[in-house]
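Database export, one record per block. Field names are fixed; values are copied verbatim from the stored entry.
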Amino acid sequence: MRHFLAITLCFAATSLLADHELDNQDLSNGQSLYAEHCAACHGANLEGQSDWRTPDENGVLPAPPHDETGHTWHHDNQLLFEYTKLGGEAALAARGVTGFASGMPGFGETLTDQEIWDILAYIRSTWPERVQDIQAARNSPHE
């Protein structure tokens, strides 16, 4: 019984801490910053560009939706942060993925780290709870 309790507490702690970077962020600021820096490509309603799964003539995919119909929630918080800060190609190259043509520019010179976290938290806040839970499970617990 004691062993079961320890395992249960470990799982509970993991799920509680897995979202740590996106917890307690300024969602209003994130929404404003999203409108200013992201909506032109990803849509005012997070809907993305049309045919976002089909590469253009240069092999670059259009901007995907950030709502629950897209794949943003398939990624962990740190990758989303790096993708936003460094840009798509640089973020993937840092993880060993090369040769991927990304149209996502880096915003590290435009936005502070805190502003990026606010935007990501705002995006997450628009997803249904079920999708938020799935995405939260993709994150490592905070240590």
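Remark 1: Residues 2-17 form the longest helix (16 residues).
Remark 2: Residues 35 and 96 are 31 Å apart (CA to CA).
End of record.
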